[in-house]
Automatic annotation (TrEMBL):
Domain of life: Bacteria
CC cofactor note: Binds 1 NAD(+) per subunit.
Gene (UniProt): ahcY
UniProt keywords, alphabetically: Cytoplasm, Hydrolase, NAD, One-carbon metabolism
Lineage of origin: Bacteria, Pseudomonadati, Pseudomonadota, Alphaproteobacteria, Rhodobacterales
Protein name (database record): Adenosylhomocysteinase
CDD domains: SAHH (cd00401)
Role noted for this protein: May play a key role in the regulation of the intracellular concentration of adenosylhomocysteine.
CC terms in the record's Gene Ontology section: cytosol
UniProt domain S-adenosyl-L-homocysteine hydrolase NAD binding: residue ranges: 222-381
Subcellular location: Cytoplasm
Keyword Hydrolase: yes
GO MF annotations, alphabetized: adenosylhomocysteinase activity
Amino acid sequence: MTDYVVKDIALAAYGRKELDIAETEMPGLMALREEYGTSKPLAGARIVGSLHMTIQTAALIETLTALGADVRWASCNIFSTQDHAAAVIAESGVPVFAVKGQSLTEHWDYLDRSFQFADGANLILDDGGDATLYILLGARAEAGEDILAVPTSEEEEAIKVQIKKRMEESPGWFTKTREAIVGVSEETTTGVHRLYDLFRKDLLPFPAINVNDSVTKSKFDNKYGCKESLVDGIRRATDVMMAGKVAVVCGYGDVGKGSAASLAGAGARVKVTEVDPICALQAAMDGFEVVVLEDVVETADIFITTTGNKDVIRIEHMREMKDMAIVGNIGHFDNEIQVANLKNHKWTSVKEQVDMIEMPSGNRILLLSEGRLLNLGNATGHPSFVMSASFTNQVLAQIELWTKGEDYKPGVYILPKHLDEKVARLHLERIGVKLTELKKDQADYIGVTVEGPFKPEHYRY
Ligand code: NAI
């Protein structure tokens, strides 16, 4: 029996061509293959990946296997898979369970299947925390907690159904799996929030490395990645003329900064909403008008949420929007926009991941990817180069957990600064950056060493 679920395995040849191109833009990952390909520090590691199954992720997977790991993979979002990327990974012999447009039921079934190593999984590579959540919730249910009985959203119902199924099929499986996991590395802001929350509640049983807060992740992927991929998603979805339009970006964190820059670069007139006075001041001083949503909801053309928060664009906002306003989210989960409250309206599917929804006033809105992250749903996510920086951190985190995991107590950790600087350094040559070298007396003068780290821990970049 084939140990994968992909849309079409015949797409593998196309996937391989794109993967070959991606590798030329992923110098960090390629350098790790060079550095560790012989010593294989991940030998014995059985890694479950739950992260958008894109071409860039395929390059990550092939790096993990080149370093000795056994890997099984699922996507962390129902719309983000690139089917040719999944196909090339399946063909290479790595079990992968991911189809663009899979249902929520399939989402959790595929995640469960990615845990089914013959000898059990021992590491998680997570994006948004679903893989970690699945195991920890399941183990709590096995311990007799009544967490599956509480009625919740459609999304949470789907995970509960899958947990119940696994509990019936293999009693004790969650607890056994939780005990075998030596650690998790987490890719994104939302997943990191979940980890700190688990830790505060004393519910985190293993060490977690917060990859998101490596400087070479959040200050690059979240920012420069979204700068390229947000407008890409809107254009592929709608072909709308961006120049001259009024766009509202909700949230001015790392993703918001990249998103506002993306829209401004395309000629849109960008307004920002924020709750944090520091980020609001940053937006204003970057030249964006900072507004409250209620004041612009009737006049703006494009609305993008980037907050990682819930209920940011609500039904009462969407009711006020002008005809053919575009509404989308680039944060991790779809609850930034109250999509559930639109369900009883008239939906017309324009094409995959683009819906036109008629509001009571007769005005229509164009909703992208049903409110799920549109840069991966409507386009192909961030470019390879920036993902190379993110995924080089991921691989270093997995090596750290696998080779030194026992040194860590349960908790959430960030990779040391010298590794952050290493990741950046690996990406300089590809774009012709020449670094100035410190002289010894200069290094002494500013209190660092010639080799770095070049900044104190509290420096914010
Ligand atoms: P962040 O914490 O840097 O920024 C979020 C900002 O939203 C904060 O400044 C916060 O003050 C603001 N905010 C919160 N509630 C708000 C509200 N009701 N109205 C207006 N502003 C509000 O987080 P970051 O790194 O920018 O990530 C944001 C989301 O994007 C997360 O869910 C993250 O996981 C996701 N993400 C998505 C990526 C993608 O490719 N689509 C890439 C990286 C992260």
